[in-house]
Amino acid sequence: MNRETVVAEALDLLDDVGLETVSTRRLAKRLGVEQPSLYYHFKTKKDLLAAMAEAAMAPHSDAALPEPEDDWRSWFLDNSRSFRRALLLRRDGARLHAGSTPTGDLERIRRKMTFLVASGVPEWQAQMAMLAASRFTVGCVLEEQADADAPNPEDLPDDVPALGHEAAFEAGLALILGGLEQHTAAPDAAH
Predict the structure, then answer these.
(1) What's the number of domains the chain is made of?
(2) Is residue 154 part of a domain?
(3) Which residue, among 61, 12, 63, 21, has the nearest Cα to 45 in the 3D structure?
(4) Do 37 and 70 share a domain, yes or no?
(5) What's the CA gap between 84 and 56, in Å, rounded?
(6) Domain end call among 14, 32, 56
(7) Are 74 and 125 in contact (CB under 8 A)?
C-alpha cells in the first residue's frame, strides 16, 4: 500500500458514500488494513482530504497551459470550464475542493497569471478575476451537486428564469469576463 493507492481508494470511497461519510475507519476497512496504518501516509484526516482534493483536480491540473499567441478571453473561459468539469467528475467534488490550498499547482497559477498580464490584463484585475471565477465555479458546482431535490423548472413561476446549471454557469462566467474586459489595457479589448 502506497500513498497513491490510499488516495485513489479514498476517492472511490468518496464517489460511493459522499464526503460526509468518508472516514479513515471506512477507508482502512476498504483497504483491508488497520486504521493506524493510514497515518503512515497521512498524519491527519485533513492531510488525506487535501491529497484527495489535489488528485481530484488532476484533469484540470494537467490541461495545457496558455500559449502567448492564445486569445486571453477564450483561454479564461476554457480554463474555468475545465475547472468545472474536474469538480463535476467526483461526487461532492466542489465540497472536497472548497477551502483547499493548491500548493502543488502554484507554478501553473503563476504561468496563467503571467499570460493574462502579458495579454494586457492589469495584474490586480487578473488576480481578482481568477479568484472570482474560481469561487463562482465552486459555488455553481456546489449548487449543481446538491440539486437532487431542486424543484422542476416547469413548476417555477413564469417570472423566474428556468436556466439549467450549465447555462447559468456560462451566463455568470460571461459577466465575469465582461467585467474583466472593462479593466483591460489590451488595444483589442472592445471585441
Answers:
(1) 2
(2) yes
(3) 21
(4) no
(5) 12
(6) 56
(7) no
Place of cell 423566474: 160
**Residue 188: inside a domain:** no
**Separation between Cα atoms, residue 147 and residue 143, nearest integer Å:** 6
Q: For 48-97, what is each residue's pLDDT tens digit? A: 999 999 999 998 988 889 999 999 999 999 999 999 999 999 999 999 99
Residue at grid coordinates 482530504: 49
Q: What is the pLDDT of residues 95-151, one digit of tens each?
A: 999 977 766 678 889 999 999 999 999 999 999 999 999 999 999 999 999 986 565
Are 121 and 180 in contact by the 8 Å Cβ rule? The answer is yes
What does the alpha-carbon distance between residue 53 and residue 7 come to, in Å, rounded to a whole number?
9
Instruction: List, as own/partner pairs, every contact residues 11-14 make where C-beta atoms lie below 8 angstroms and the sequence separation is at least 24, other chains included.
Output: 11/52, 11/55, 11/56, 11/90, 14/52, 14/90, 14/91, 14/92, 14/96
Q: Domain limits at 33?
A: 3-56
Same domain, 74 and 15: no
Q: Model pTM?
A: 0.85
